[in-house]
Amino acid sequence: MNWFVSMLGSSIGKKLMMAITGLSFCGFLVAHLAGNLFIYGGRDAFNSYADHLHSLGPLVNLAEIGLLTLALIHILTGATLFYENLRARPDRYSVNKSAGGRTIGSATMPYSGFFLLFFVIFHLFNFHFVDKTHLTIFDIVSKAFSNPIYVIFYILAMIIAGLHVSHGLWSAFQTLGANHPKYMPIIMMVSLVFSLIVGIGFGFLPVYISLIA
Amino acid sequence: MTKTINLTLKVWRQQSATIKGGFETYHASNISTDMSFLEMLDVVNEQLTLDCREPIAFDHDCREGICGQCGSVINGRPHGPEKGTTLCQLHMRHFNDGDTIAIEPFRAKAFKVLKDLVVDRSALDKIIQAGGYVSVNTGGTPDANAIPVPKEIAEKAMDAAACIGCGACVASCPNASAMLFVGAKVSQLALLPQGKPEAARRVTFMVQTMDELGFGNCSNERECEAECPKEISITNIARMNREFFKAGLFSSTR
Known about the structure:
- The complex is a heterodimer.
- By secondary structure, chain A is mostly helical.
- Chain A has one domain (2-89, 105-212): Fumarate reductase/succinate dehydrogenase, transmembrane subunit (3 helical TM bundles of succinate and fumarate reductases, Up-down Bundle), CATH 1.20.1300.10.
- In chain A, 77% of the residues lie in helices and 0% in strands.
- The longest helix of chain A is centred in the middle third of the chain and has 30 residues, at 58-87.
- Chain A is globular.
- The N and C termini of chain A lie far apart (55 Å).
- The model of chain A has no long low-confidence stretch (mean pLDDT 94).
- Chain B has helices spanning 37-50, 122-131, 151-161, 168-172, 179-190, 199-212, 223-227, 235-250; strands at 4-13, 22-32, 73-74, 77-78, 100-104, 112-115, 118-120.
- By secondary structure, chain B is an alpha+beta fold.
- The termini of chain B are far apart.
- Chain B contains 8 helices and 7 strands.
């Protein structure tokens, strides 16, 4: 298995790990957003969705362990890449100018990534690691978003998540070697649309909750 | 009549690899807009020599855009602002009278500055060496059409082979990665039947050597593709990735 470790440890191997874990998170975002849409069904609909989800028991724990593993790989590999890439150019240019390849998403990848790490921790302490014996999840959510600071922070975080995904999604396909003249334009388009769905889809939820709260 | 312009140059001067460098300002007067960028530097150097000052050292050879020797970073852009152009083919008509131009060497940990704008790009040669050989059978001359190669594939291989190894991809990459160079070199052989027998070991060792030499990691910023004087596409990077996974998972090369 030595060859496998050295393959994953190479520059392309690290990209591969970022791509696979990143794509998995895109899948997670779809499931998360689909679940969150129950909020539009009102208090009972959302609470019953949460109950159904938690009635899956061990499957939820398994998914959580899986997500945590993916997150650790994505974060540690990403941090390594960020550090190595800084070291690859010890003397910087005095004039920096883009030739038009970079986008805001691609240029901010490590920074938006670090921000999202802190956001996810904050988000988990907000809604996951809370005492749910007396309050339903809908009450916790609607109480949190009655505070405008929370609403603004969450909207900002979702814009950054959209930005991160806008580069990450197509980039994962390129890394996996899936760059084809017929499909690449479609992949680029899907990435853009998906990042808008993430940004607007998640970003509008706090606004909606604060309006009905 | 030929138009002439006056320019202010901010040039990176560095005596040797070990001595710290810095920018110095020079004035380039009465520069014909028909000159190439390197000819403009020749004029500046002539004046410096007459003034008993050290001329600016820069790499150049064919001055036809095909050898890959020249290249400096002009106002933050390797080979200057024109698309698909080497520095020797960049003409002064793309600049205006009174412009200030910053000229820096290619910067990367793997490219050591030797003097002024001259950098050591032998790291790219080391990657090529790691790629090894292509088997060519000896014996009677085979018919030219003995190995069929579809035109589209031949063209893709030729597009990859257009790489002149100037290092602008490394210089322009925000991470100083050499993936476009290695991608092109892997692709030009991986696409053709002649390159198939050694494909697995070639890609494995070239990537390994690239990593050892201290190049950064690709993050698909696409600056290399936009800056490459030969307009090599990042589809070559995707192809290298495919070749690398294929070699890593399905060949006996380790």
